[in-house]
Amino acid sequence: MTRVISLNKLYMPTLKEDPVDADIASHRLLVRAGMIRKTASGVYTFLPLGQMVLRKIEQIIREEMDATGAQEILMPAIQPEELWMESGRWNDYGPELMRLRDRHDHGFCLGPTHEELITALVRNELRSYKQLPTTLYQIQTKYRDEIRPRFGLLRSREFIMKDAYSFNESQESLQETYDRMGEAYGRICERCGLDYRPVEADSGQIGGKVTTEYMALAEAGEAELVTCPKCGYAADTEAGACICTPTVHEVDGLTKLETPGIATIAELAAFLNIPESSTVKALCGIVEGGEGEPDQAVALFIPGDHELNELKASKAFGNFRLMTDDEMEAVGLPKGSIGPVGLPAGVKCVCDANLKDVAQWAVGANDHGYHYVGAKPGVDFQVDEWVDLSTVKAGDACPECGTVMDSCRGIEVSQIFQLGTKYSETMGATYLDANGKEQHFIMGCYGVGVTRTLAAVVEQHNDEGGIIWPVSVAPANVVVIPLGKGGDEVSEAAARIAAGFAERGVEVALDDRKERPGVKFADADLVGWPVQVIVGKRGLDAGNLEVKVRATGERVDVPVDAIYDYVAGLDLL
Ligand code: ATP
Ligand code: MG
């Protein structure tokens, strides 16, 4: 039998005013609802109500992890520096790693993640291919000295993560575990009531790393996404492929126009009275050569209504950076009027693949204060390389189905990652294969931000009155609210009704505080219990209770005897 949560005894310090340092809903409401308190910048305490929600989310994650066959462990937060030196990350991780020394001057860090620890754990004991695949997980506190802790639980310095690590024999086996984890991650989001999109991102570095991020759609999110309304495809604009159709400004042959003082795409489009999508934007960069190799100057051309994606340029060329104004001048590239026709010798011409079928370009003329219209690729100039260079945006086509995409923002609540042999090689973690030969483990890692998920749920489920918890993660599903001073008939009836819910296995709270009805109503809305059962003298005399559904605000009078069936039938619990 579940117990009735007595709000009179519960440590639930609700606030009428928003905390001054909170600019997003989840931060504001979790503090006001008495669920969290700030201890230091990016460091929070969970109060009883917050802890109840946290445990619900953890339980969902635990069930989904167990169902994949992963096994729960608990590793320490404190990690010896030797392991991080082995992996090379003691230096690579930078100031985000919280470092400390013990009384014997041994170095440690507070773990931001656990690849080193788990690899060291299994390397001597997971020995045979017969034990593979093995996946271990934990739900544990992580530390990252974020440069800018903000948005409450969304980007904190101490947070709870579920992290899992798989040890596989082959790429196929890793793919299987990865896919199963991906499905579990989708179910975790769904069961927490999150509107989410898996976002594919090929990190593109050596070793063919594959990774998927799970994004909860929310304005407060730091990630900018494009989403397909038809097939559900979604991508981070930082990484997503850009497929667009530039418009064409058709003229009779290559024409050089005097364009005094025109340096930006907006000015050019206005001058020519054409949309920006009919213009071509130029950017200049340098691809730094390796040892003994010379640097290469490149002129990049992209559709005028798009932005250069420097990440894509870096992926395409290696060590890429934009030129300074001085460097442009030194090479003979006239800022504001750069074009593909008559580029200075030695400057490589690289164009966005979306421009390939654009027959005529309106673009700089490589002459200060002049632009061309009607510049034809392959005729008036040659292109050295066609590459995907632009940042995808709303209005571009879905790479999967061609539908026009929308844009929105997302909170990265979780991420799965194929690590390959990165850690097993640097840390010497091997097993014996069927032929008795030492092989490096092929690894995957899988992380859910537990506290970030909690905040993401609030971002998606709130209104001006407060939080609206989905039943799956609510601290309790029903709050019974007696309107009265206590010790009277109304209070007794409310206590009896609450006990009846508990007997039926329904998680229930009883607002037995000596507060005015207005305070109780406001707090019930703020805390976000899914169902409110209001017990008043007048209603009781008529044999009725009032039921309010938090999500819809709907209020219905229900006969006392029918209350349990009515609430059960709400299709909420
Ligand atoms: P971000 O890009 O947001 O900094 P990350 O990609 O570095 O996150 P991972 O290493 O993938 O994070 O960690 C797994 C999960 O842990 C993330 O998906 C996120 O939900 C959570 N997480 C990471 N950093 C924080 C943080 N500072 N505060 C709260 N949760 C976090
Ligand atoms: Mg991540």
Provide structural commentary:
- The chain is α+β, with helices and mostly antiparallel strands and 573 residues long.
- Helix content is 25%, strand content 29%.
- The relative contact order is 0.14.
- Residues 204-208 have low confidence and may be disordered.
- The protein binds adenosine-5'-triphosphate (ATP) and magnesium ion (MG).
- Magnesium ion binds next to strand 22.
Features:
six-stranded mixed sheet; nine-stranded mixed sheet; binds adenosine-5'-triphosphate; 25% helix; binds magnesium ion; single chain; alpha+beta; 573 residues
Structural class: alpha+beta
Mean pLDDT: 95
Question: Portion of residues in helices?
Answer: 25-40%
| Total count of helical runs of at least 4 residues | 15
Topology:
Layout: E1 4-6, H1 25-32, E2 36-40, E3 43-46, H2 48-68, E4 71-72, E5 78-80, H3 81-87, H4 89-92, E6 98-101, E7 107-110, H5 115-122, E8 134-143, E9 158-168, H6 171-191, E10 196-202, E11 210-217, E12 223-227, E13 234-236, E14 255-258, H7 265-272, E15 280-287, E16 296-303, H8 310-317, E17 320-322, H9 325-331, E18 348-352, E19 361-364, E20 370-375, E21 385-387, E22 406-420, H10 422-426, E23 430-432, E24 438-440, E25 442-449, H11 450-460, E26 462-463, E27 466-467, E28 478-482, H12 489-503, E29 508-510, H13 517-527, E30 531-535, H14 537-541, E31 544-549, E32 555-559, H15 563-568
Bound molecules: adenosine-5'-triphosphate and magnesium ion (MG).
Magnesium ion (MG) is lined by residues 412, 415.
